[in-house]
Amino acid sequence: xxxxxxxxxxxxxxxxxxxxxxxxxxxxxxxxxxxxxxxxxxxxxxxxxxxxxxxxxxxxxxxxxxxxxxxxxxxxxxxxxxxxxxxxxxxxxxxxxxxxxxxxxxxxxxxxxxxxxxxxxxxxxxxxxxxxxxxxxxxxxxxxxxxxxxxxxxxxxxxxxxxxxxxxxxxxxxxxxxxxxxxxxxxxxxxxxxxxxxxxxxxxxxxxxxxxxxxxxxxxx
Length: 221
Prior knowledge:
Elements: E1 9-12, H1 21-29, H2 32-47, H3 55-65, H4 70-78, H5 89-96, E2 101-106, H6 110-117, E3 126-129, H7 130-133, H8 140-150, E4 157-161, H9 166-173, E5 176-180, E6 196-198, H10 204-209
Parallel strand pairs: 1-2, 1-4, 2-3, 4-5, 5-6
Helix pairs in contact: 1-2, 1-4, 2-3, 3-4
């Protein structure tokens, strides 16, 4: 029987890979249709932003772009501490904790990123926000800052994405990537496909447990 060979560290997108922020955006917008349009506008602004601009401002700008009132952005922040983990997220984190360092790399302010990360009852070895890094993902800097804090090289770590925009950054840094594509979004044009794409986190630990083998398990949606 082959023993498990985990990476030294696993980095997670926070607000889409681990936490169900989609529901919060939908509630704040008043409907799923409006919430998804708002979130899509926000993602375009954020991932095209590069240098850090206040996260809260980008949320407001995206609301205005899709003709939502300022009160929607205020409602989203008021609902922040009600963010809930996706099913399987806590089990995966608790299983990995004895074997790997754990970190989040999130496009968020320090204040909101720390609050959201602390909603998950695990000991984080690093919490890196776009504000701290000074750049938004998918610029390589936030990922590299997390690796530096963890004291590991990219080939010794893996990244769990919630959005395919992350694949631009992980490809540039050299991080093997698992895309937790919970709501079935298409791959963003030009993004490198992840090593694994799945609608849940059920296959994450099996994939990571074979990390050191020459050929990783082939898993798909």
